[in-house]
Specification:
The protein has about 375 residues and is of the alpha/beta class. The protein folds into two domains: about 5-40 and about 285-380, Aspartate Aminotransferase, domain 1 (Alpha-Beta Complex); about 45-280, Aspartate Aminotransferase, domain 2 (3-Layer(aba) Sandwich), CATH 3.40.640.10. It has helices at about 15-25, 45-55, 65-80, 95-110, 125-130, 150-155, 180-190, 250-260, 270-280, 285-305, 330-345, 370-380, and strands at about 30, 90-95, 115-120, 135-140, 160-165, 195-200, 225-230, 245, 310, 320-325, 345, 350, 360-365. It has a seven-stranded mixed sheet, with helices on both faces. A four-stranded antiparallel sheet has the order 9-10-13-12. Helix 3 packs parallel to helix 9 (about 270-280), helix 4 (about 95-110) packs parallel to helix 5 (about 125-130) and helix 10 packs parallel to helix 12. The protein binds pyridoxal-5'-phosphate.
Length: about 375
């Protein structure tokens, strides 16, 4: 038999995050490896979806989403960032931010195109690039502030470079890109005529006075940026699969056609639930969310410090990378397994966020957990010898 798996299959093998969740279940541990928020879904969002289902909004929607949701996204984007987006042509509602990025890559990249991505990275970004035939090229972010050099961007550039991915606030580092850094990226993208694909899914998870600046608002970036976000995290609805891409109609039309091909549409009644939430919830909801997660961040960071695993305190998102170099083991996987055995707390080995041997001294802890679960994890971490 000559049948075999595709060459790209190796990139979507069991991820380290899934592996750690399985290991965690095996020992009945506390899973801080996966980014699943178990905080409450806003009642208005749940009720909106229920009502939509009862009212018969259960069939395919237009390829770019229901107008009620597209309008709600445009209104919210204008309210929070000042960005003007036309709900007729400049928005595609997709199956989460993940679906939006996948369709963006299918629409705008050719096989062999290179895409610059900052490291440590979110593994799905890499897998999405590879699955669509593109090649990731890495630019290092340097701890503790996860800064980068303009020269490293230039070194990463080749005549095949088509795009750069910016994830702000970032998973796993929690980095919030500053205005100056985004200006550097903008100048680079304009100079080399590149697309900018953003992932702003953590836009409301900000700490220590940090503000979210959508890259699309920078001079020269409006036309070349595909802004990607979604409500998985903000409304704690990771399983609903509702996200979106925003950008110039020239690109969004085709991104929408790929969305139609791959997903047809995001779940119809859930689109309504999300639209109701976006329309009903104001600043106080988003500020409350950030306050709630700041408390969680501080709880886990204090415990990591006490456990002798110094955290690289994040400015955004809901993960913290900690230095686990003092734990026994030859690499981050062995160290994370030691931690799981000793404390029953599962974290993701740092190597999952680096290519070619980086991150071996790091582990990522997710703090999107209910406070009692987090308190128990903190207590267990403090028992570490
Ligand atoms: N982007 C980043 C950076 C993430 O960390 C995650 C989830 O962990 C996602 C996207 C997934 O978003 P969605 O559920 O909207 O597909």
């Amino acid at each position: 038999m000559n049948l075999r798996l595709s060459e790209r299959h190796a990139w979507v093998l069991q991820s380290e995050i899934r592996n750690m969740s399985i290991e965690c279940d095996r020992v009945g541990g506390i899973n801080l490896s996966q980014g699943v928020c178990d905080t409450e879904v806003p009642p208005v969002v749940r009720q909106g979806a229920r009502e939509a289902m009862d009212q018969g909004i259960n069939t395919y929607t237009r390829y770019d989403g229901l107008v009620e949701l597209r309008q709600a996204i445009a209104d919210k984007q204008r309210r929070f960032t000042g960005m003007a987006v036309d709900p007729e042509g400049e928005i595609v509602v997709s199956a989460g931010a993940t679906g939006a990025l996948y369709c963006t890559c299918l629409a705008l990249l050719n096989p062999g195109d290179e895409v610059i991505i900052f490291e440590p990275f979110y593994g799905y970004h890499i897998s999405t690039l590879v699955a669509t035939g593109a090649t990731p090229v890495y630019v290092p972010l340097c701890p503790p502030d996860w800064s980068f050099q303009r020269e490293s961007l230039e070194r990463a550039w080749t005549s095949r470079t088509r795009a750069i991915i910016v994830n702000t606030p970032a998973n796993p580092s929690g980095k919030v890109f500053t205005a100056e850094e985004l200006q550097t990226i903008a100048a680079f993208a304009v100079h080399h005529d590149l697309f900018v694909f953003t992932d702003e899914i953590y836009e409301h998870f900000l700490y220590d006075g940090c503000r979210h600046l959508p890259p699309a608002l920078l001079p020269g970036l409006g036309e070349r940026t595909i802004t990607i976000s979604g409500l998985s995290k903000t409304f704690s609805i990771t399983g609903w699969r509702v996200g979106y891409a925003l950008g110039d109609a020239r690109w969004l039309q085709t991104i929408g056609h790929f969305n139609d091909l791959v997903y047809v549409c995001a779940p119809a009644p859930l689109q309504i639930g999300v639209a109701r939430g976006l329309n009903a919830l104001g600043d106080d909801y988003y500020e409350g969310l950030a306050r709630q997660y700041l408390h969680k961040r501080d709880m886990i960071c204090r415990a990591l410090t006490d456990a002798g695993l110094p955290p690289l305190v994040p400015q955004g998102a809901y993960y913290v990378l900690a230095d686990i170099s003092r734990l026994p083991g030859g690499n981050s996987k062995e160290r994370a397994m030691h931690l799981l055995r000793e404390t029953g707390v599962a974290a993701v080995p740092g190597s999952a966020f680096y290519h070619e041997g980086g991150g071996e001294d790091l582990a990522r802890f997710c703090f999107a957990k209910d406070d009692p679960v987090l308190a128990e994890a903190a207590a267990r971490l403090r028992t570490l010898k």
